[in-house]
Write a structure and sequence with these properties.
single chain; 283 residues; alpha+beta; seven-stranded mixed β-sheet; five-stranded mixed β-sheet; 8 helices; 16 strands; binds phosphoribosyl ATP; binds zinc ion
């Protein structure tokens, strides 16, 4: 039986819960305790603050965890990154007040930077031989320059809205993060096999994101042109229809090109086009 640590509440909780649900793992959400048993997979769910997940996995309190790579990098613990999960994307960036003359990271020499990520920032500054004063604060980092606590900040950015609201400009993107499945590096062979099963389920969900399953009826005389138009790595499935002169064409399409291809297929004579969501894609 594996034990997985996940964020109890916060930005990663919802995506984590739906990833587990899509992977066929049902966790009783109603009466949330610290630990919950799941059905559909031999796993126990431990609800924690995201800051505590790397340590819990490191100590073996949990075997695996779902947490932002930013938290893992900041703790600097030896954890195994099993796979990235494609949600919770953000970056940790240096930002300075709008209007300062900034020509590069050397600007920070002799200056003070407020952050909740002192370890990542220290490594970055060290790699550039920059001597700056790092002021660790727990929250509301973005207001530090305005209240005279720091010259700049090093904080999580996703849309950039918070920086703009606080009169700050992002000048260096230092660390790119997303949620990941991480594991204790000393798991037994038995638990490792369970982790591989979990990874297999998660991968099929993560891989299917950004793709749709498309079905359509195509006049037989243009099937070859339709297949060429669809292109891609996988050849589409072509099935004869009961009505003579028509075929049914089935394929998986990337969302980036979906509408453009559907328009072209319609012009070729395709009819009855169905676009379906894909839940899993197993290579
Ligand atoms: O209670 P707990 O400790 O578990 O949660 P928390 O409050 O520490 O973390 P939470 O839930 O806010 O974030 C969890 C994880 O989500 C982070 O560790 C990141 O890996 C990831 N993540 C993704 C983000 C953001 N996007 C994000 N935008 N974490 C925080 N933010 C904050 C950021 O700190 C800043 O204040 O949002 C603001 C910036 O957002 P924009 O869109 O205005 O740029
Ligand atoms: Zn936290």
């Amino acid at each position: 039986m594996l034990r997985i640590a996940i964020q109890a509440k916060g930005r990663l909780n919802e995506d984590t819960m739906s990833l587990l649900a899509d992977a066929g793992i049902d966790v009783a959400q109603s009466k949330r305790k610290l630990v919950a048993r799941a059905t559909g997979f031999p796993i126990e769910v431990l609800y924690l603050r995201d800051d505590d997940i790397p340590q819990a996995v490191h100590m073996g309190v949990a075997d695996v965890g779902i947490v932002g790579l930013n938290e893992v990098a900041e703790r600097d613990l030896a954890l195994r990154e099993v796979m990235r999960l494609g949600f919770g994307a953000c970056r940790i960036s240096l930002a300075v007040p709008r209007g300062v003359e900034y020509h590069g990271p050397a600007w920070f020499n002799g200056r003070c930077v407020a952050t909740s990520y002192p370890h990542i920032l220290r490594s970055y500054f060290d790699s550039l031989a920059i001597k700056a004063d790092i002021h660790e604060i727990a929250g509301s980092v973005e207001i530090a320059p305005a209240v005279g606590m720091a010259d700049g900040i090093f904080d999580i950015v996703s849309s950039g809205g918070t920086l703009i609201q606080n009169g700050l400009v992002e000048v260096e993107q230092v660390f790119h993060s997303e949620a990941a499945l991480v594991a204790n590096p000393h798991l037994s062979a038995e638990k490792l096999a369970e982790v591989e099963k979990l990874k297999f389920r998660f991968s099929s969900i993560v891989n299917s994101r950004g793709f749709k399953y498309v079905l359509m009826n195509v006049p037989s005389d243009v099937v070859e042109r339709a297949v060429a138009l669809i292109g891609g790595m996988r050849s589409p499935t072509v099935l004869p229809l009961a009505a003579p002169g028509w075929c049914s064409l089935h394929t998986v399409m990337s969302e980036d090109v979906l509408w453009q291809k559907i328009e072209a297929l319609k012009e070729l004579g395709a009819e009855g086009i169905l676009v379906l969501n894909l839940e899993n894609m197993i290579p």
